[in-house]
Amino acid sequence: MLKQGKKAPAFTLPDQEGVVHKLSSYKGQWVLLYFYPKDDTPGCTKEACMIRDSWPKFKKLGIQVFGVSVDSVKKHAKFAEKYELPFTLLADEEKEVVQKYEVWGEKKFMGRTYMGISRVSYLIDPEGKIAKVYEAVKPAEHAQEVLSDLKKLMV
Known about the structure:
Layout: E1 12-14, E2 20-22, E3 31-35, H1 42-53, H2 55-61, E4 64-69, H3 73-82, E5 88-91, H4 96-100, E6 104-109, E7 112-117, E8 121-124, E9 130-134, H5 142-153
Parallel strand pairs: 3-4, 4-5
Antiparallel strand pairs: 1-2, 3-8, 6-7, 8-9
């Protein structure tokens, strides 16, 4: 896990429409980079829909939201369309960004060990530094937690 205060690693990834995004393009604004295991699974859907339902508040604060997983552009497009997600989903199929942000690793589920993404988010400040690290994110509470922290940090 990366530490608060550290410069956020640069990235260049395609979104659900194939448009390429670079972190450096968002310098000067707040960015929520949230990593999630897989499109259209219960926890990931809950987290995405909670952000969607709070979208007017995120927009009002001017924050750029990126959901990142190793799913394909095509899978992201289906997920975003199915749940009417108004924010950007980034496809890290080569697993470069999940490794840079230290969220890719060994996981255990029902006695099985496998490699996957930990549900971790990074709030990146306008200078490109990590302002807050959210470990072990609770999908149902995450959107409100980020909004609450942003209001405090933006003062």
